[in-house]
Specification:
Chain lengths: ~160, ~110
């Protein structure tokens, strides 16, 4: 199942990148896709982590929400950059992550880093060490909406 | 119609440039390594996204559009990883930092 989805993704990627739908190109694409999947299978990386099929249906909604958060925090950080005087009060905080799986934790940690104003420094079990630019960013993370949404993603 | 697309495209490009410059100003203004990473984050996300969207409006419906879209997707996946590894290396190397807020649960470990 995972190998099938990986072959399909690779072939689609090949076709989109080359933009040539001739018979020779498609044949070469299928051959390359199968070769890549065969090598990946030998490396034992074709599994639920490289092909998170169980997450896929719920991902677009999360991406939409995350994009809005990224835009919001970008405007916030930009405002702090251009406002004269002392505008930031940085600090390091430790927050809890409620995800069960490694992939859920990495999605959460990467989402934190992607939004400007917060950077994941280290993941220690269920704790995440975060550097935040201001008190607002700390409050945003402590409200835990991002945490809940990522957890809902993996269930 | 094409004029409107062009106008929209230039709007995105100029907005992207503004955020790029903002990121640069932030890197100069902020006091230490970690806060500068936040400023660089503005360039990483908003600036690249807006400029690539602006370019997508320039190119129209073809293969280049798909390539620009894939570029954006890969950048948004890889740039937080790069930022994280920089931050982790800085934490590990004990780069000095300014800390103003300390939460009740906070720790500087």
């Amino acid at each position: 199942m995972h190998a099938l989805s990986m072959s399909a993704t690779m072939l689609l990627f090949w076709l989109l990148i080359t933009g040539d739908f001739g018979i020779l190109n498609i044949t070469l694409g299928i051959a390359s896709a199968l070769l890549v999947v065969a090598i990946s299978q030998r490396m034992d990386v074709v599994d639920h982590e490289s092909q998170p099929l169980h997450l896929t249906p719920r991902l677009p909604l999360y991406w939409a929400w995350l994009s809005i958060q990224v835009i919001r925090s970008n405007l916030e950080v930009t405002r702090r950059i251009w406002t004269p005087g002392e505008t930031i009060c940085p600090g390091i905080i430790r927050i809890k992550s409620s995800q069960q799986t490694a992939i859920g934790k990495s999605i959460y940690a990467n989402s934190i880093t992607l939004t400007p104003g917060t950077i994941t420094l280290r993941v220690l079990g269920d704790d995440i060490l975060v550097h935040a630019l201001s008190q607002d960013d700390v409050t945003f993370l402590e409200e835990g909406e991002m945490d809940r949404r990522v957890t809902r993603l993996e269930s | 119609m094409n004029d409107w697309l062009d106008l929209l495209s230039w709007g995105f490009l100029l907005a992207g440039s503004f955020f790029g410059i903002s990121g640069g100003v932030g890197i100069l203004r902020f006091p230490d390594f970690f806060t500068r990473l936040h400023a660089a984050g503005v360039t990483d996300t908003m600036c690249t996204a807006l400029i690539l969207i602006g370019l997508m409006f320039q190119t129209g419906l073809n293969v280049i559009l798909v390539k620009l879209f894939l570029t954006l997707a890969f950048l948004l996946l890889t740039s937080p990883t790069a930022t994280h590894s920089l931050a982790k290396a800085a934490l590990h190397g004990k780069i000095e930092q300014q800390i103003k807020t300390r939460e009740k649960e906070s720790s500087t470990s």
